[in-house]
Every structure is written in structure tokens, then in C-alpha cells.
Amino acid sequence: MGQKEKIIALLKLNTTMTQGQLAETIYGDKNHSPNIYTALSKLVTNGIVIRTGSNPSYYSLSGVKPIIFEKSIKRIKLGCNFNKDLITDDTLNEAERDVMGADNYGSEMDMITRCLKTYPYNTDSDLVAMKVGLIDITNSTHLSQHKSKISMAELSDIIASIPNIDERIKAGDPEVVNTIARSNGKINLFSFATKYCCYHNKNLYERDDYSILDSVLKDSLPKYFDDITRGQIQRWQNSYNYAAYNDYITKKLDELNITTAFRKRKFDWFVWYKNR
């Protein structure tokens, strides 16, 4: 259920609420009031919700007479748990603990880290092939399904031939993702490329410059944010515009005041673990 649907459902139950009251009911505290501003404004602009008064303004559904209470409105929550998918530092850290504590996922993350630390550089195509295979298998990127378009040897040669690739990945250069994704021009390896760069950047250099994109993220992001669609994400992928996607994730985490270390990596785990 998106923010707009939650707002409409709450106004059906409570008749009239302020922005702060809506935010507190949805997110658990009024500090998240700015998080619903865009969705609430769109509902007002489209005539679905009406706004009455100011400081504070009261919101009600169009066609329903506002009821302004002198005292705080007793808010009735819907049957679903709004807070289960709340994006905060705590929930992102919890997602990391869930992933790393899982028998399969946690041990695989440790294996990837050990491999990258043992073979950090991407200039030897044979060593690159080993890392490509490991990331492919552990992340289910299904490269083997595309052998008719690109072989492991060809992809490894492409990665190893990227100028200054290690320095650029360490610095978080988004164009490295696009270069790997374009591969030989016969296939778009955008998802694999984001993971290959992210793992090296985070697990090897302890940085957090890259956001992963895969089918789970592509399908799930519109559930969390009203200003993105699956179609827009697909257009970024089709046009090899990784910077736009990565900047969008950065902007949303900034808006949510997420400050935990490795927030992009943890956000990927958060969305993936809850929607896999």
C-alpha cells in the first residue's frame, strides 16, 4: 500500500487529520511529516483531498465535511502494520543483521569479501572470470542464460580492459557500471554491473558509492516512493544512465535522514529481504 492509499484509508476512518497526525499514524512519529508532503499535496491538487485552515491545516476526503476537534484526534490505524516497511537507520541495520545472520546469505557475503580481498584487482581476465562467476552464482544474475550473446571469457576480457578500472571503482565512478553493462553491445548487463561494482567498492574498499539494481528493486521501489515508477527505472537501464538511478537512491535516503554507515548497501538488503 503506497502513501496515497494509506492517507486515503486513514481519512476514511478518521474523517479529518493534520499532516502531522497522518505522519505519526503511518510512521510512528511526527518527525516524518515531510515524508508524506508530496503524496498529500498531489491528493489535494487532484481534488481527492481537501485542505482546511492553516497552522495547522486539516485534511479530509473531498465531499466529506471536515470535523475539527479542539483536542488531538484519536487516530485509528488500519489493520496492516505500517511500520513493518518503515525506512529508518534502525530498520536498515536490522535488515543487515537478518541477511548476514542467514545461513546461506551471510556465509556467501563472507565468501565474496574473502575472494575480493585475496584477488582485489581487475586487470587479469582469468581472475576477473573467477569473481564474475562467484558474483553471478551467489546473486542469481543468470549470466549462463546469455551465453549465445556473451561468453564468460568475453565479459572478463571487457572488464579487464576498462582503463583504470580499480581506481575508478574505488572512487565510485558511475560510468564503470555503464561500461560493464554495455558489454559487447549485444546484451544489457545493468543489474550484474551494479553488483560487480558495488561488491568491490563496499567489500574491498569499505565505501558506499554504488546502489544495486535488480528485478526486486525495480518492482519494489514504487511501493516505497510515490515519485518513481518501474517504467522510469527501466528507461534508466535501457539508456545506461546509472548515475540517474544512483543519484535517485541517494536523494531518497537523504530525504529520509538516513545516516547509518553503508546506507545504500543496507537499503538494498532491506528492500530485497522484504520483497524477495
Question: Key features?
Answer:
276 residues, mainly alpha, Arc Repressor Mutant, subunit A, 2 domains, three-stranded antiparallel β-sheet, 58% helix, elongated
Q: Could you characterize the architecture of this molecule?
A:
The protein has two domains: 3-85, Arc Repressor Mutant, subunit A, CATH 1.10.10.10; 87-276, no CATH class. The chain contains 14 helices and three strands. The chain is mainly alpha-helical and 276 residues long. Helices cover 58% and strands 4% of the residues. Helix 5 runs antiparallel to helix 6 and helix 5 (103-118) packs across helix 10. The two termini are 17 Å apart. A hairpin with a 5-residue loop joins strand 2 and strand 3.
Portion in helices: 55-70%
Radius of gyration: 22 Å
Strand order of the largest sheet: 1-3-2
> What is the number of helices?
14
Shape: elongated
Strand content: under 5%
Strand count, sense and barrel status of the largest sheet are: 3 strands, antiparallel
The average pLDDT value, as a whole number, equals: 88
Distance between the termini: 17 Å
Which stretches are poorly predicted, pLDDT < 50 over at least 5 residues?
68-84
Structural class: mainly alpha
Give a short overview.
This protein has 276 residues and is mostly helical. The chain has helices at 3-14, 19-27, 37-45, 89-101, 103-118, 125-139, 152-160, 165-171, 175-182, 190-204, 215-224, 230-238, 242-255, 263-275, and strands at 17-18, 49-52, 58-61.
